[in-house]
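sry for the spam today, last one i promise. struct tokens for design, 301 residues
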């Protein structure tokens, strides 16, 4: 009997230790930031059939719990502003979803590659950011597809099957098309209206107020293309952390394959002759002789 009690006691202590260890590992450690937002939860979204998200337009799927937010950034990649957003996210060891414009991705592919390298999710946001409700259907479909192709071209990997319509205009025939292409459609719960603002403080105050009004959770819409957002984002992330918000990172069950005819249409838009050589630069140009500071330093008398 004594032995049995001892066994049970040992088992209970072991269980308690496992629980403590798993709680500790669930906490984010973030170098240089004792109070990081981190990532509270990662979700995998099955976009089969084109589900819609963001209660401003789609009421089907409410996957966020109280205090949970999703950070989204549109209209990049753009020099300096996207880098500033990435730096602020990295300082909080947190993750976001980016909806880049196709043209911008072909102009600044290295910026989009840095977004991918830092582990953020990359969806798409059309080729040239036109209001799709004003285009004939075939042209609108080309806008969607070329946006997907240009992500593929910029990062060398397929985009996530997440799509945001420009200006959140959702023509029914294209919502149907997104369903056929198994693209998840992302509207928003909390619009930052950053494109209308100049003051980072106003952006932060506005987002925090609307987030609170939305029941303390939601998909946040911002633009890594906007100067004001680049300035506001470190303040906003600190504020979100201080108020106890938790970041949910969205990933997809599968990526979206770009279609060859639209890959070619994007290639045709790139200025200058396009080489058929797809080898990485590191295999084309290699350093054969290291140039050390000592070797180039003039001899001193
Ligand atoms: Zn946009």
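last one done:
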């Amino acid at each position: 009997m004594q032995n049995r009690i001892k066994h049970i006691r040992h088992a209970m202590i072991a269980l308690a230790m496992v629980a403590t260890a798993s709680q500790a590992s669930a906490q984010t450690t973030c170098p240089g930031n004792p109070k990081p937002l981190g990532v509270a939860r990662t979700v995998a979204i099955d976009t089969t059939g084109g589900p819609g998200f963001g209660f401003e337009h789609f009421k089907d799927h409410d996957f966020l719990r109280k205090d949970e937010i999703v950070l989204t950034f549109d209209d990049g990649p753009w020099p300096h502003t996207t880098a500033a957003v990435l730096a602020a996210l990295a300082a909080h060891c947190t993750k976001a979803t980016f909806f880049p414009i196709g043209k911008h991705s072909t102009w600044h592919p290295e910026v989009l590659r840095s977004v991918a390298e830092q582990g953020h999710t990359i969806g798409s946001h059309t080729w040239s950011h036109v209001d799709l409700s004003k285009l004939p259907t075939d042209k609108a479909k080309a806008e969607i597809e070329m946006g997907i192709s240009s992500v593929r071209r910029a990062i060398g990997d397929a985009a996530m099957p997440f799509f945001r319509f420009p200006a959140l205009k959702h023509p029914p025939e294209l919502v149907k098309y997104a369903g056929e292409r198994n693209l998840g459609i992302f509207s928003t719960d909390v619009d930052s209206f950053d494109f209308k603002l100049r003051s980072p403080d106003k952006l932060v105050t506005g987002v925090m107020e609307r987030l609170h009004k939305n029941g303390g959770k939601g998909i946040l819409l911002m633009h890594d293309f906007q100067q004001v957002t680049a300035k506001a984002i470190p303040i906003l992330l600190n504020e979100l952390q201080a108020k106890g918000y938790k970041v949910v990172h969205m990933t997809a069950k599968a990526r979206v394959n770009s279609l060859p005819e639209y890959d070619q249409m994007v290639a045709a838009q790139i200025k200058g002759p396009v080489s058929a050589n797809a080898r990485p630069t590191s295999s084309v140009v290699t350093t054969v002789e290291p140039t050390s500071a000592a070797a180039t330093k003039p001899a001193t008398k």
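Residues 84 and 189 are 24 Å apart (CA to CA). ok im logging off now
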